[in-house]
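hiii so my PI (J.) wants the whole complex modelled not just the main chain, which honestly fair. so below is everything: two entries, each one labled with what it is. i double checked the lines twice but i was tired so who knows lol
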Amino acid sequence: MLQNFGYLAPKSLAELYAVLKKNSGKAMILAGGTDVLVNLHNGCMAPTTLVDIKKIAELGGIKYDKKNGLSIGAVVTCVEVAENKDVIKHYPLIAKAVGEIGSPQLRNRATIAGNICTGSPCADSSCALIALGASLELSSADGVRTVFLKDFFIGPKRTQIKPEEVLTRILVPADMAGANFGMNKLKRIKGHDIALVSVAVAKTDKVMRVGIGSAAPTPIVTKDLAPNASLKDTLAAVAAVAKPIDDVRASKEYREFMINDYVEQIYSDLFNGKGR
Amino acid sequence: MKIKLTVNGKKYERDASESKNLLHFIREDLGLTGTKEGCGAGECGACTVIMNGKTVNSCLVLAVEADGATIQTVEGEAKNGKLSKLQTAFKANHAVQCGFCTAGMLMSSRALLNKNPKPTVDEIKHAIEGNFCRCTGYTQIIEAVQDASGQLKKKGGLKRA
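here's the output for the full assembly
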């Protein structure tokens, strides 16, 4: 038995906002539950109420159109994203990144929104989404605001989201559709493992960005690089933001070495005309 | 909270505590103890069940979230006291040693075979990547799934990963 908490499952956004307002600071949003239930199991969090948002129809679905780009609802699971035709066709980097998350059992439940809101520096989806210039729609009874994913994280497991807010949709810009890409994730084993470092590159004919995980207190992204930036300039932009530390899983030096190695590998693939 | 769910084809209606996970509900409230608790934190896959056609770690699902769901546990494999083809293949290929991971392994393999009746070795490895076995070294498990799908050419022929 886990610690005691109440369970609510609002059926509309209006109902959800009211619940969050009433239980401000004491409620925890439950989507896939693959992080929340682990934290409850370990006693790392003690919400009085879990608010299950999976019954809210407005939070479902993946939408794509040429003008507005991609929009992923907060309760869409990793598997639904990885198998979505529009994602595979227009944003294959996202499909690749979510396929790296956890195990099949976890991907069947976990949501991308949850992977983001957990705020882990090693979140696999964030590394790709941040390179694609994604932004988040944060909603509450007071209205909707949109923040860039790169500005959303403020520290390890800390984000900009307020207690009364909910991440409603993840937005990926239309001009990044069809971006050439590469992604590498360093793990201790071939199977289900958390990233020692991860590197994702997205490149269109206008811009190139490198997203990096497990290399700073938050997922990070380089400044916008020219699409024909040299490898030297790309590595310099990476070095300007990547500040990995020593921890139980890898040393700072190993991480720096592998980040550079991955950037070089992906760069060489992208500029010889073959993506990964 | 009152919940209704179907487990191995049988309908249940129970009062479930909000703070009970599906794993404990299945074991304690329904008395189906084939599903095991390993880590309790989604790492080991021992508690894997099939929920609405997809494998989940039942330790990471609340019982109340399973309201209205259709669930298959390891008890749904054998019919009338006769092991399923998959179970028989596990037995014949020595895919069971201590047996603690077996219920979860069977559920991940079952979900794979439901979707893909002739999986490749890589597809099998991918499907069971969330299930830890600390005894067999996985080779026998992979061979058992190959055998169950009529693809095992030579026992012990699989190269070690």
